[in-house]
Design goal:
Layout: H1 2-9, E1 39-45, H2 62-73, E2 77-83, H3 86-89, H4 98-110, E3 112-114, E4 120-122, H5 126-129, E5 137-140, E6 149-154, E7 168-169, E8 173-174, E9 190-195, E10 206-212, H6 219-240, E11 254-256, E12 268-274, H7 288-294, E13 312-313, E14 334-338, E15 344-350, H8 375-379, E16 385-390, E17 402-405, E18 417-422, E19 429-435, E20 442-448, E21 451-456, E22 459-463, E23 467-473, E24 480-486, E25 492-501, E26 509-511, E27 514-519
Parallel strand pairs: 1-2, 10-12
Antiparallel strand pairs: 1-16, 2-6, 3-4, 5-6, 7-9, 8-11, 9-10, 12-14, 13-14, 15-16, 17-27, 18-19, 19-24, 20-23, 20-25, 21-22, 25-26, 25-27
Length: about 525
């Protein structure tokens, strides 16, 4: 125990990190990413508004609402559900083909002549309000339920990241194994694309999944959603994680697409879509989001994260009224879920123009006719979920710790992020950094010689509270830096987590993620 305390005492040496400017300031109308290297992902059920027969002029309607909200949020990757249904939109008949919907999305982004409506000019389009923003890479799913199609749009090109010779998949087929009943990803398929992120910025690439699960409140509807979710969970674990074996699809159950090599260790899987069930409103029932996140055993070792722990799904809320509702029924039906052992969440939110005060309206949203606060109500009966992710960057030193999660958001949906850089064997040093805390607040570092994972102040306290360091002042950049922590004194593990006194957080406390810190001999 004494040898463990010696390196931990070095944590008392504090150096505040330099103040850096940030862009994110939604209260004053700036909704841009805080860091340009963050990856912004948005999921949205657009309720049939993207279809060939819809009017594409700048007048009160769903099309301008969709245009101005996408232009305002400017995601790097946009996944859409419920596209292509002209009957559902009440403006025509039939469902758009893949090529027709591709043409619609070209008009949505870039304008031009509406070839489906007599060649009249498109007067509402994304680049009208955000000229420097584009999503040039578009994957329209060929799988349809006879009405709707799913779409993935990306700032970055699609590219094969696991050696299977393809980068776009409309669905999969697998045999039953373990908990998965076999089959595919549900009534509309499990659309997923492999995205080649810039090598000069990111250490890995992205696999983006998109699904629109069966709607309805009957037991059979729930069963269809859960069957699809179980299949998706198994597919991710087998093909992307190798079921812990080190090789893709070790049990030979996935037939389409054919298994190949695992993605690189830094390549991230993010899943999202309209999963049509509120996990907080279905009682003790294990719904599709929980299955996709955790597979059979919540908190076990068969999860869908790359390290086979559980993934994390969002707890996004409206920045101005705190509502987690994403659909007009008052439920949260729309989700983003990610491998948190690879990426960290900077923040996520539900966007609803109706709650945005005048001074917080993005300039792009001001293009909506008459009153920009009406845009969401006209656009869709769903509200988009938006998240900024912090990905491993190219050329960045390694983190010797294990991120065990359990961060709790503070003011403005900001999630404090705790990381380390360096080494912790004898003769090495590591720098510890808390980011995205409330500027000017006070923070306490909780240090434990074991973990406890105990409920505390609306969150989860990871370490046993054996030692406390603090109060530590949070810089104007929202950071606390602890430099040159010496390694050695082990082998032994410590568990550490920051608590930030933040009046904008529930119970007045925001939590960082917990770290398991391995001190070497």
């Amino acid at each position: 125990m004494i040898t463990l305390r010696l390196p931990l005492c070095a944590l008392a040496a504090l150096l505040l990190a330099p103040v850096t400017s940030s862009q994110w300031d939604p209260a004053n109308g700036d909704w841009s990413k805080e860091q340009s290297s963050d990856l912004r992902v948005m999921t949205w059920n657009v309720q049939d508004g993207l279809c060939r027969s819809n009017a594409k002029q700048n007048s009160l309607g769903d099309w301008p609402g969709l245009v101005t909200i996408v232009a305002s949020m400017q995601p790097d990757v946009l996944i859409l559900q419920e596209c292509a249904d002209n009957n559902g939109n009440g403006t025509g008949s039939g469902s758009d083909s893949v090529s027709q919907l591709e043409a619609v999305l070209e008009m949505f982004m870039h304008g031009g002549a509406d070839t489906f409506n007599g060649g009249v000019p498109v007067t509402s389009y994304v680049q009208l309000y955000a000229p420097a923003y584009d999503l040039p890479y578009v994957f329209v799913s060929p799988t349809s339920d006879g009405f709707n199609r799913d779409v993935i749009m990306s700032r970055y090109p699609f590219g094969d990241v696991n050696g299977d010779g393809a980068d776009e998949h409309a669905d999969f087929f697998q045999l039953a194994d373990l908990y998965a009943p076999g089959g595919g990803g549900g009534i509309r398929g499990f659309q997923h694309a492999e995205i080649d992120l810039p090598d000069g910025i990111y250490a890995g690439d992205l696999i983006m999944g998109n699904s629109h699960l069966k709607a309805g409140g009957d037991a059979s509807d729930h069963a269809q959603r859960v069957d699809a979710a179980m299949n998706i969970a198994y597919y991710i674990d087998a093909l992307m994680n190798g079921l812990g074996s080190g090789g893709a699809d070790p049990n030979g159950k996935v037939f389409q697409p054919a298994a190949s090599a695992l993605p690189s260790a830094e390549t991230l899987v993010i899943l999202g879509g309209d999963w049509n069930e509120d996990e907080l409103g279905n009682g003790a029932t294990k719904g599709p989001a929980d299955w996709i996140r955790s597979a059979a055993i919540t908190g076990g070792s068969d999860g869908t994260d790359r390290d086979r722990s559980d993934m994390t799904y969002d707890a996004s809320a409206d920045l101005f009224n705190g509502s987690t509702t994403t659909q007009g029924s008052g439920s949260k039906l729309d989700y983003l879920c990610w491998q948190d052992s690879i990426a960290s969440l900077r923040r996520s939110w539900v966007f609803n123009s109706a709650t945005v005060p005048g001074g917080a309206v993005p300039q792009e949203l001001a293009g909506f006719p008459i009153n920009p606060q009406l845009a969401s109500g006209f656009a869709s009966d769903h509200r988009p979920v938006v998240a900024d992710f912090i990905l491993p960057l190219a050329g960045v030193c390694s983190d010797p710790t294990t991120d065990v999660g359990f961060a709790k958001a503070g003011s403005s949906a900001l999630v404090p992020r705790f990381s380390a850089c360096g080494g912790l064997d004898s003769g090495e040093t590591a720098d510890f950094l808390l980011e995205d805390a409330l500027p000017g607040a006070q923070a306490w570092l909780v240090i434990g010689f074991s973990s406890i994972f105990a409920p505390f102040s609306g969150g989860t306290l990871v370490p046993t509270p054996d030692l406390l360091l603090g109060p530590l002042p949070v810089s104007g950049a929202g950071e606390v830096s602890i430099a040159a922590v010496p390694g050695g004194g082990g082998p032994a593990d410590a568990w550490v987590q920051f608590i930030v006194l933040d009046p904008g957080a529930s119970f007045g406390r925001a939590f960082s993620n917990g770290l398991e810190v391995p001190f070497g001999p």
